[in-house]
Batch of 4 targets.
Target 1
Amino acid sequence: MMRNNQTDQILTHPKAHPKAHREVQIPSITSQGILKIIAASSAGTLIEWYDFYIFGSLATIIATSFFPKGNETVALMSTLATFATGFVVRPFGALVFGRIGDLVGRKYAFLVTLLIMGGATTAIGFLPTYDQVGVLAPILLVALRLLQGLALGGEYGGAATYVAEHAPKGRMGFYTSFIQTTATLGLFLSIGVILTTRLNVGEEAFKAWGWRIPFLLSFALVIFSYFIRSKLQESPEFTKMKAEGKGSTSPLRDSFMNPYNRKWVILALFGATAGQGVVWYTGQFYALYYLQTVLNVDFVLANKIVATALLLGTPFFIVFGALSDRIGRKNIILAGAALAAICYIPIYQAMASAAGYNAVTGTSINPDFIALTSLVFVQVFFVTMVYGPIAAFLVELFPVQIRYTSMSLPYHIGNGVFGGLVPLIGTWAVAASRTAGYSWSMYAGLIYPITIATFTVIIGSLFLKDRRGEINFPSAG
């Protein structure tokens, strides 16, 4: 079947068409200019992650407000399932907003996602509880959680692509790694706001109404971020592509129906983002749930432990992003996944010991803050290895015409589905194995992330290519 030249150009990697890419003249970007772009992009993305993660950080509190009382485990599982819906729907957001981003522009897409996310998050702060409206409460909660997932599905790909298309040649890993810090900083911010609110209003008031404050705060944060982002210009590479009439008229078809691009979408998922996703959510979210629900460490102390580890680990996103510019992305990502798979069980055994956990009473006595923070930090360090280079890695796999769409889907399936299900599957596995009477039940939640991370290391090592430096980007002025 015959295809026109424009379609051929869209459906294959830019390396296959060097002449077409030499025709694109992109203006130089100053170091000060790229820093402003990163600051504006990162601010919005950080706030979207904050919006998305305050739900997870408050799962144990929300469980008592939106689901029937009587069985705390069932209520928590229901809340985690609601939390997971936001992850599962993220790939659909990637398709919807990825298409918009490739057709209309990166800036327009991530302005829309910011408003949707902020609106849904603020609305959660106003929701009536189960005691007030019965089953309508969890229904409304799930609906707003779905909107959050759709928005985040379109946000990340836009921000990462936008920064990458401004990055100086040879520095893409370094500059996009600032976007990579926003997920962890968003989680850190959510924990910080929750702790501050909890300590100021008191435990009982926080459970009754204080938990709404972090959600309501989102409104002011989103307005501030929207104002900053609205002043941004479209990326020069995308603008040039549109001016020359080389854009894709059907990004979804060109991304997933063409065998060449579809192959890289699949390999990016199973050889990189699936393992990266489970490592991210194990090291940052499951670690928090493990402290709270398995080791029964105090709510405030558990959040302080994770928040401190996140703060200490965040600079390493930049370290590994920059290192990937020198030695490549793939090996760093796979090394992080392999280390996590090997080390999780001994780390979580050490966490139980450091918490002073008594298996008979199910309580922890005199938890060692420094030891527990160090053990969570090691997990965050693995997160920085797999996550720091991933944006640059994905951007380099796909041509500009379909980049937003193509990179967003494997990223959000890997993180939203494989990674996002870690807390739910982990909590369920611990509960089920305890019911069965297994002596190793408290570590059962690690089986899933270890299996996925190992699978990713095997697939990535055998079939995935590192395309560092294959795409020409503007040089710094």
Target 2
Amino acid sequence: MSNKIRVIVAGAGGRMGKEVVKLVLEDDALELAAAVDRSSHEQDAGRLAGLPDAGIIVSEDLESALASSAADVLVDFTTPQFAYINTALAIKYGVRPVIGTTGFTPEQISELDKQCQDQGIGGLIAPNFSIGAILLMKFAAQAAKYFPHLEIIEYHGDQKLDAPSGTAIKTAEIISEVRKELRQGNPEEEEIIEGSRGGYYNGFRIHSVRLPGVFAQEEVIFGGFGQSLKIRHDSYERAGYMPGVKLGIEKVMEYTGMIYGFDHFIE
């Protein structure tokens, strides 16, 4: 009997989905149970990912794949429109969800946690699977204890749908766990152009840059008397997220309930 973790990849035809398929097919500890994509179905999953044929034909119906594949884990990098539905479906079939899509509300995360608890399985929703990005969040939270004046700037390509990014929001949340709300800047400041100061979060500002040619970057800037500190992380390609995805797949096999944030796995 195989000890491999059987994985379904939803959004297998997307840019992140192809990387996940490649990860699963090339890792001896993982096995591709199914691949699902609405626009790339009826193709071999291996060929879709740029590898030799894997003998797994991409389907367009996730529920059928969940019902028939005897999978352990669902990895989903689709869109906010489908992510909640896909996550709930996976839990219904006892398949552990590992979700890289952003846009979940706190209420949805709480409900999905209850569903996981009821099924006795683990789940993970992670705005970012990059180990470097998670370290940035942790370092920023440490720095915020001593530099409470800060701003976040995040950079992505011009086709990204949400602003600020899920990574920036998660960074802000982690910082706010150790930093009391502090309204920064001149109390009489006035925006001459609306939005110039960025989005307001717990007293500090988040700025979103959207430009062609940009992949994914985040910078947290701290200011203090006579000094400043900048903590920055740059991602250059999607393959850089795959070590984190693999760790997420392995970890959800070990606990019960839905965890929000990959930072829980980085000490």
Target 3
Amino acid sequence: MGLKIFNTLTGRKEDFVPLQEGKVGMYVCGVTVYDLSHIGHARCYVAFDVVYRYLRGSGRSVRYVRNFTDVDDKIINRAAQTGDAPVDLATRNIEAFHRDMDSLGCLHPDVEPRVTDHIPEIIALVERIIGNGHAYAAPDGSVYFSIDSFPQYGQLSKRNLDDMVAGASERVDEDPNKRNPLDFVLWKPAKPGEPWWESPWGRGRPGWHIECSAMSARHLGETFDIHGGGKDLVFPHHENEIAQSRAASGKEFVRYWLHNGFVNVDQEKMSKSLGNFFTIRDVLALYHPEAIRMFLLSTHYRSPINYSARNLDEATGRIEYMIETVGKVEAALADGGPEGGEAAADVARVRGAIGEAMDDDFNTAAALGHLFELCRAANDWVARKRKTPGRIETLSAIRKVLAEAAGIFGILERPPATVLSEIRDRDVARLGLDVVDIERVIAERWAARQAKDFARADALRTELSARNIDLMDSPQGSTWRVRRQAQE
């Protein structure tokens, strides 16, 4: 049926038809680098990482642009608190952001523009908007976009302009330089001690909204295919982007608008004021990156997602099962067996179902459900006798589909034993356990079993169980794992 995308602008799913066949231009709003990035940022950038991966994996050539806002009130204020130069603070947080994204397995965009590298483009764009009668310069050196000049304002956010004007008019601190209380700033005059650039309106710096219009036009053209970001950006940021970009060019700005849902924490919206704010770095210290990706992708990107220890434990168990399955399939294939049969038809069916789910507005939740179905089938085939007709062919086909899925979802790409060890290390650290002590007790229990002191062995198993350690015995010895909350 082809790829369908839910377009925020029209409020419905639409067939995806790019401007140029086989090529896609995609812009995703990046972070304002005044601090470390949080789990809400992870939700956004993992979601669009999968969009990027899927579009590329479908044979399209994709140019992915994600910006950095590296000059802003928040950066200036934070730099004043820390004693840093704003540019140094921004650069340090960009480096931290890259480390976080690399840890989460996100591919690098093709271009990562910084606002401070695009001041000439921003100034030129503001001049065009003024020249077209959609903006005006104020006496203090500010430049404002005139909302009254753009009747389509509010189409993206589905807001009524008259209601917005009435609400804004009630503010007692309204800027006297504005002709309409909804007019938004394109250029700000410099304040003492702030970064500034020369412009036709005096020394100053860009407003927030204008930067994305300038950078997307520079790197993707005045009209491009996909613009993404969090739902919190629909208004006013993306609404303002549309107004200023169309006011400058007179052309359609973006064909498809995609917005991911919010992250809630224990059913409450994540915010610093509530004290439920988690940086990506904090979460990575507790949970494996592949578990975090599994957690984030197990809900459709447009829906809200609830961040909780239970949900992350559950996601860890799911990714662990999938990784173990990959290991078992690889071991079975290495062990070999008679060939000459045909792969089970269900493998092709599940592969098709994964593609259909992704073509339905990038429905990762449904696609991962089909992938789990494939893993269950894989374990069934691994357990069958080596001489079962079609066993090797089916496992080979399953391994190929798992590899394809790995490329789409950014999981299952590393050696299973390595990832399982890393998951266990985080489980241990999260519960404050001592690996050396656990291994000592396990060795003591094994010795008791060998000596047929089963009462002692059972007592040691009970001791470990009380510490959330589950044992798996085999003729070769005992292995162990941490029992998580979701498994209780």
Target 4
Amino acid sequence: MRVLVTGGTGFTGGRLAQMLKEQGDKVVTLARQGSKTDKLIQAGVEIVTGDIRSRDDVLRAAKGCQKIYHIAALYRSAKHPDSVYHDVNVGGTENVLHAAEKLGVDRVVHCSTVGVHGKVKALPVDENAPFAPGDIYQETKLAGEIKAKEASERGQPVVIARPAGIYGPGDMRFLKLFSTIQSGKFRMIGSGKVVYHFTYVDDLCQGFMACAEHPDAVGGTYILCGKNYHPLTEVVQIVADSVGATAKRGSIPVWPVMLAAVCCEAVCKPFGIEPPLYRRRLDFFIKDRAFTGQKARTEIGFEPNFSLQQGFRKTAAWYFAEGLLRGKAPEHADAAPIPAKA
């Protein structure tokens, strides 16, 4: 089967493209000029040079494809104006849906985010929880999801997936958490009682595939999440175990860090500089994320395989192998060794 994966040069899309190739699909990805595509090419992925914001480029990439996995998105950053989030997360989705309709694509899997629910008020929640996006990323992801839902209601074969907290080997977003815990510099912000729900990237990609293949998935919306959610104090302990460190106790209040983040944004954003600290990054410490995952299990048979302990150990092993953490990875029975970086 010939499939298009948008966002293939990113962490999640790249892993999905690789796993689809491993199961025998012919995989195409849309990549901007100058993007790093060496690993994709080595894996046998066909590269179409273009931009998700261009309707013609998306149409060209989708030609001949039976399925589209729409993973491309502009993630949390404080250096981009709001209009860029809209162009990528909403306009890009419209371009994908247009191409799929025009070319008669069999199925579109649209990757949204559990962030559309904002800070959840009950633990855990399901797909029916109210929408409460808290920033421009979540707002535009919700707007893109609504576009996908409208296309589904018009008869297009669309499935919406809402991943929770994606991580795994290759991810750089959580590297700072691992490195500061290893070095002893990490300090909890707030009480640490806030809960977070992670999803190991391989599990997530299997969930995407289930959305693309299960006959009952069309028209559905599914939260794809890991086995369990954890309070941040427990997350820190699991990270510490994965890097062979002892987590330091103690915390600092939220308000001074939030004030510092506001100041950093005010100074850096007008110059297009990524602030060292910004408000959206603090969501990790102040907003609960906990989901049942029941609908995906019941309707499309999605069952995550990795516990957080297993996933963090594999992630840490990759960080060590790449030289991103100092020293050597601790030996864990459930974390296969990763070849050292050449």
